[in-house]
Amino acid sequence: MEFMKPIEGGHGGCLNCGEQTELLHMDNIIAVGFGYAALTRGGEEVYNEIDGESDANGYGNNMTVLQAEELALKEPDSDWRIHLVAPLSERHYQRQDVGKWVLYEKGMGFA
């Protein structure tokens, strides 16, 4: 598996949209409200916010980064990523070590 080059956080497309952190915290939820939020393993979607809200994946309302980490611990050699695409903010994280989800791409989102 190839690790993506980590990048600095900062603001995305909107100064009011909050900081795009360089590392995800374990208590963050994988959700954006309006847009696309997902966990992938090797490019295959394991969880997405829409199915999570309907409990189709068994995660209650929304999956947390800690729950994603628990899945990743079972298959640590896989390429795990979290994608958060929202209006005026887009962030992509890759799991690069135990409990370390690193920002490797950010953008202006959509709108």
Can you describe this structure in just a few lines?
The protein has one domain (10-107).
User: Roughly how many Å is the radius of gyration?
Assistant: 13 Å
The main sheet orders its strands as: 4-3-5-6-7
How far apart the termini lie comes to 33 Å
Mean pLDDT over the residues: 87
Give the CA-based shape.
Answer: globular
How many helix segments?
2
Class derived from helix and strand content: mainly beta
Spans of 5+ residues with little confidence (pLDDT < 50)?
A: none
Order of helices and strands: EEEEHHEEE
Would you count the extended β strands for me? 7
Q: What proportion strand?
A: 35-45%
* Fraction of residues in H or I helices: 10-25%
Main sheet makeup: 5 strands, antiparallel
What is the domain total for the residues? 1
How would you characterize this protein structure?
The protein has helices at 49-53, 65-74, and strands at residues 10-11, 19-20, 36-41, 44-48, 80-86, 89-97, 100-107. The protein is mostly beta strands and 111 residues long. The protein has one domain (10-107). A five-stranded antiparallel sheet has the order 4-3-5-6-7. It has a two-stranded antiparallel ribbon with strand order 1-2. A hairpin with a 2-residue loop joins strand 6 and strand 7. The mean pLDDT is 87.
List the helices and strands and how they pair.
Blueprint: E1 10-11, E2 19-20, E3 36-41, E4 44-48, H1 49-53, H2 65-74, E5 80-86, E6 89-97, E7 100-107
Antiparallel strand pairs: 1-2, 3-4, 3-5, 5-6, 6-7
Which features does this protein show?
111 residues; mainly beta; 5-stranded antiparallel beta sheet; two-stranded antiparallel sheet; 7 strands
